[in-house]
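Re: that chain you flagged

S.,

Sorry for the slow reply, it's been a week of failed gels. I finally had a moment to sit down with the sequence you sent. For the record, here it is as I used it:
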Amino acid sequence: MGKARAGLHADQWLGSTCYDQPERAEQALKIGVDYVAFGAVYPSTVKPNAPRATLEILRQGRALCEQYASERRAAVVAIGGITAQNAAPLIDAGVDSIAVISSLFEAPDVYAEARAFSRLFNS
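Prediction finished late last night. Pasting the structure tokens below so you have them in one place:
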């Protein structure tokens, strides 16, 4: 990880995709990643065969981030099939961020959809 980190600017993050495997997150956190990503959380047209990460897996990811926090806590990211209508339980489970593609860029009003996502984190 030292080489990867050395190639980044101070404001860039290093993360790990963990699919539905908290043990992958634990390994990544031990070497100091900035975020761990889990998903697909919901059915996804972008990655239809992606392993499913449950709310319990997201909670486990949050607990691991707390456990391995050193200078700062790593973020938990959820990805896969997320919409503004189904994202609230993910936030309640402890995710810091959500990654979206289709629900945002296929929305009739991209700006309104982005604001709907932002409101979920600001409420």
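What I noticed first: The domain at 13-122 is CATH 3.20.20.70 (TIM Barrel).

Talk soon,
D.
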